[in-house]
Write a structure and sequence with these properties.
Layout (H helix, E strand, L loop, with lengths): L1 E6 L2 E4 L4 E9 L6 E7 L6 E6 L6 E3 L7 E6 L4 E6 L8 E8 L11 E2 L3 E6 L1
Parallel strand pairs: 2-11
Antiparallel strand pairs: 1-3, 3-8, 4-5, 4-9, 5-6, 7-8, 9-10, 9-11
């Protein structure tokens, strides 16, 4: 029904920047919230950022606040994650997700992308 495809991941040195994109296809609705999560090896999947449908409300994990920016372009059905001042501990597979209700919990999101690898070297 809904497919999400992430892009923009890769290898970057500490202090560098990456911009992740997540394009949605299929049925989308205006009340859908969009979020980013990440999972590092041996770690639980954790919340990174979320944005409301309007783009007016954004939410960030404390670990990325001030460094990452989430935004969305509803005309393109795309959500972005601008990542600045990257640290080695940001290394993880990053997933975008969407659901009808905003949440910091992964279980509350209905549709997920396949993930994109972000690797930050020292």
């Amino acid at each position: 029904q809904v497919q999400l495809v992430e892009s923009g991941g890769g290898l970057v040195q500490a202090g560098g920047s990456l911009r992740l994109s997540c394009a949605a296809s299929g049925r989308t609705v205006r009340w859908n919230a969009m979020g980013w999560f990440r999972q590092a090896p041996g770690k639980e999947r954790e919340f990174v950022a979320a944005v409301s449908w309007s783009g007016g409300n954004t939410y960030y994990a404390d670990s990325v606040k001030g460094r990452f920016t989430i935004s969305r372009d509803n005309a393109k059905n795309t959500v972005y994650l601008q990542m600045n001042s990257l640290k080695p501990e940001d290394t993880a597979v990053y997933y975008c997700a969407t659901g009808s209700t905003w949440s910091t919990r992964s279980v509350d999101y209905e549709y997920w992308g396949q993930g994109t690898q972000v690797t930050v070297s020292s």
